[in-house]
Amino acid sequence: MNAVLALDQGTTSSRALIFDGRGRVVAQSQQAFEQHFPAPGWVEHDPQALWATQFETARHALQASGFSSSHIAALGLTNQRETVVLWDRASGQALTRAVVWQDRRTADLCQRLRDEGHEEEVRQRTGLTLDPYFSATKIAWWLDRHPEWRSRAERGELAVGTVDTWLLWKLTEGRVHATDVTNASRTLLMNLQTGQWDVDLLSLFGIPPALLPEIHPSASDFGTTRLFGGSIRIGGVAGDQQAALFGQGCVAPGQAKNTYGTGCFMLMHTGAMALKSKHGLLTTRACQVDAQAQFALEGSVFMGGATVQWLRDGLKMFQSSSEVEALARSVPDSGGVVVVPAFTGLGAPYWNAEARGAILGLSRGSTQAHIARAALEAITYQCADVLQAMVQDASGSELQLSELRVDGGASANDALMQWQADVLGVPVLRPPLLESTALGAASLAARMAGVELQVEAQEGRHFRPSLSPNEIESRMTRWHDAVRRVL
Ligand SMILES: Nc1ncnc2c1ncn2[C@@H]1O[C@H](COP(=O)(O)OP(=O)(O)O)[C@@H](O)[C@H]1O
Ligand SMILES: O=P(O)(O)OC[C@H](O)CO
């Protein structure tokens, strides 16, 4: 059988999808889990909840499909990146909650390392910036506060990993402690060129090598799981944003996608070339399917769909995220209101961990609808800043961005996509299947199992830009003025 099971462990939910040989979804299951906010700026997940929801969704999807494990050619795993888990190798139990990518508790440590002059060296070696977003300072934070954990880590009794590594350990019942290059490239510990842990970086962050998993290409042998009745081969692992890039078919230099989930993550494939950004973007690994390393430029925006969650849960404007579209469309414009959703600082291209959110331009006539519209526009402006940086970085090279492919939960919002095309001045293409992340993981696994998915080309929806260059400029100027104020 050519069916493939994809597990997508995201920031707010775990999903499992079963694809047939043509890349069609034959069954799926999704479960949300609790978000923990123990202190301002802290975000944690219970590792056991990540595993339990992921395992349950896989079981449900298999049940719903009517397939048994013998029908599944391979399993592909994709995950929220940077989030780290620490566990005891003997018991397989986590020592503490996972520290999530959005968590800002290590802002001071990052600042200290910057003050000591390490920023440039870290950027050269990893392609990343010294920001609490990435895994290394989160691990250092644990070991600095728990000397006994450090001693146990040095003795090889503990294991650390991004979420893929934790789930692999669970799926293989402790037989495999591994990750792939895309996930490892988000830790601040992997040398971008060699694709291996960098001993100087391990020493800079004080991380014992015995804690870390092996790094493999994204399509490779990650062992087998026997938890679903038979034996299923795990053939693909990738961070969710790189998996989406692969799933959108962006495998050639210049092809780009933007995923609108909790955050927004725009990635442009740059082929075998690690393009260094001069405009605040990250250089990262794209999915690797053979011996050749692949690279991408990335702009990470922390508050994407999470801005809509805040309107829903924080301001109680509506019950379901999808209601934001009608509310925002009920006014012709934002009435001069600008929302800067810097709730957890600002990511690319600003990289400011201290900035906090603001609503500007309020008048007596401002309503919920104006704020909702301004919040959606803020998502599009943040992505426009990233695209602008990407175009500047790519100028002078052969990379040409002619359209932006989109996916993720919030890309279902037509208004958001139209306003996005408007401020980008570039067509936005939305495929019929928004689950590019899971499809990417499935394609990697299928490839490893030798059963390439024959995905049928299907017409997506195009959103074409409709604003004049002057209008784009005036909106972006107003946005940049607001950003300057929160910085
Ligand atoms: N119609 C919509 N308009 C705007 N935002 C939406 C819409 N539907 C979902 N969202 C937002 O998209 C996010 C969920 O997308 P998803 O891809 O499932 O995220 P993740 O993988 O980060 O968990 C949530 O933040 C939600 O508020
Ligand atoms: O879980 P998502 O889809 O919000 O993605 C999270 C990113 O991987 C964080 O870098």
TrEMBL record:
- What EC numbers are recorded for this enzyme? 2.7.1.30
| Keywords linked to the UniProt accession | ATP-binding, Glycerol metabolism, Kinase, Nucleotide-binding, Transferase
* Top enzyme category: transferase
Molecular function per GO? ATP binding; glycerol kinase activity
- Which residues hold glycerol? R81, E82, Y133, D240, Q241
Q: What pathway or pathways are given for this protein in its record?
A: Polyol metabolism; glycerol degradation via glycerol kinase pathway; sn-glycerol 3-phosphate from glycerol: step 1/1
Q: How is its activity regulated?
A: Inhibited by fructose 1,6-bisphosphate (FBP).
User: What GO CC annotations are associated with the protein?
Assistant: cytosol
Where does the record place the Carbohydrate kinase FGGY C-terminal domain? Answer: 257-448
Which positions in this protein are listed as binding ATP?
A: T11, T12, S13, T262, G305, Q309, G409
Start and end of every Carbohydrate kinase FGGY N-terminal domain?
A: 4-247
- Protein task: Key enzyme in the regulation of glycerol uptake and metabolism. Catalyzes the phosphorylation of glycerol to yield sn-glycerol 3-phosphate.
Q: Which family does it belong to?
A: Belongs to the FGGY kinase family.
What is the name of the protein in this document?
Glycerol kinase
Originating organism:
Inhella gelatinilytica
Q: What is the lineage of its organism?
A: Bacteria, Pseudomonadati, Pseudomonadota, Betaproteobacteria, Burkholderiales
Q: Which gene encodes it?
A: glpK
